[in-house]
Write a structure and sequence with these properties.
25% of the residues lie in helices and 33% in strands. It is of the alpha+beta class and 353 residues long. It is globular and about 60 Å long.
Length: 353
Amino acid sequence: MDAAVLDETIRVAIVKSASEVTVSGDGILVTNESGEPLTVKLPATVRYIRDRLQVEGKLYRRLSFSASTAVYVNNKPYRGMAELTVPEKGILVVNQLPLEEYLVGLINCEISSAWPIEAVKAQAIIARTYALSRKMTRITSPYHLESSVIDQVYEGCMIEDSRAHRAVFDTQGEVLTFTGGIVQAFYHSSCGGHTEAAENIWGNSFSYLKGVECQYCLTSPSSTAWEYRLALKEIEDRLNAAGQKVSGLSDIKPGTQNSRGRLKHLVLVAAKGSGTITGEKFRKAVGYGFIKSTRFSMKNLKNEMIFSGSGNGHGVGLCQWGAKQRALDGFACGEILSYYYPGTELKKFFDIR
């Protein structure tokens, strides 16, 4: 693998605001904030005490755990280094590791490596592109990415396999570009028939993210109709926790809808705090696992809301289940990517830096 690829590292937040964290593994090197090696009995329980990290009765500002194989954080294995700090209330754990190793661990969290290899290679390329784009914008932040749907789902190296390795190795260093720069490589599980324009979701317009017809995902389990019931009080609590202050929520009504059938806004009816909220903010507040997309309708049944919808995700960029079907139809990863991101071009990252 090219040295420029090997040198590229990524920092991923794998634990946030924790009161305690357990670290274990074989051949672990432990260092403090000054880089001095420490003798710590493993497994070690690190606790948050008075804005410090406490382990074996001693307090530290930062602890780093590294190994040639894997560091176990709360019983999950991670390659590279686990860095523990207390930037705010609670413990932040950041996994720092080579970018390509991160991608191998990510593949089976985002899709299945058993999918057609061209779809897996497409996933490797957009995940690499997304990670590098985030690194550029968050270069001074404590971490570049979160390990959840906020950015990309990542659970360490526990579910790596040979096909994930192959997809990453075969596309090493490849990123998706537009007019010479790295693109905003958004992607989602299934669009339900048509991908979405970025400006309809976040307000920012990109010429390569205008939305395309996609019938390829319609037979996937991810595109099938979904329904969830949630008590209005539960929704109210989640909205308040997300900063949308409402009290006495009695109804939620559909607001404006775009041409793709996605709700741009919802109307909150409450004793206090009535108003509108964007569809994406509502999804995030209530939970992406409950409101899978903004393509849904609602019914108020006494003290409960019934949400019925289709598709999974924000709908922007590559549709993962659509990519799978296109690979089954014989398309190569480059053809798949150029369909979902029109006008883009594949390049080696070290050729454009």
